[in-house]
Amino acid sequence: MKSVVIRDFGSFSVRRDKGLIDLLIEKRILVIASCGGHGRCGLCRVKIKTAKDMPDEIESILVPDRLLEHGYRLACRYRVNDNIEVSIPVSGALMVLSNDRAIKHVKEIQKRCAHIELANQSNFQKVCISALQFAPWN
Fold it and tell me: Is residue 44 within 8 Å of 72, Cβ to Cβ?
């Protein structure tokens, strides 16, 4: 078993080689990934402190070198093979929804964001931020 500490969410024990996105989903720490977590959009970026594994080919394409150098990885591509600390950015291309009431609004956010081409991530971010601002969280 390996330990995954997710900043602001807690510490979790997971089996070796578990996908990080699987853990996030299991613990209801959802990240926006327009591709459904299949390694095509690059939106599920997380910062992993002490990551020892090298990024795979897909991560190398979707995550800029400057971010890889600072520990950013794709949750959908990362397999837990060591004890790690994870920070989930709440800005830029990634937004976190952990509130149970917020989960029902993910489909609406995905629907509003679905028409935006991947190449134009700044528009994607604006639409998602807009969708989050008007969602009835409380």
Answer: no
